Amino acid sequence: MRTLCSSTLIGEFFVIGFAALVAMKDPGLSMTTVWTVSGVAMMLCLLLCGLVTRPGGVALGWVLQVALIASGFVVPMMFFLGAVFAALWWASVHFGRKVDEAKARFAAQSAGPAEPSSPDAA
Description:
It contains 4 helices and no strands. By secondary structure, it is mainly α. 23% of the residues are buried. The protein is elongated and about 85 Å long. 75% of the residues lie in helices and 0% in strands. The longest helix is centred in the C-terminal third of the chain and has 35 residues.
């Protein structure tokens, strides 16, 4: 799951950076505000790459997805891109867990059954 989710988050990192460049053209927003908000979101993306397998990591990822969609109020194209990345996040979590379960099953099968200890071994 970590690989799929991290890939999605790295993609979001770049999309947030490009959206900040577009938001800078809005005369109602200061450059400081745009880069502070975008910088925090970009750092959160990077931080989540390491936290995604920890408790609350996936939930925090969902918060980021909602924020990305809500950024569409500043840069309208982000409504669409936020929805795309939310779908990618869902797919990363869903299929990542399935891959993790399959790996665990394969590892358990590869280990084989434990050999019973003989009564003579003491």
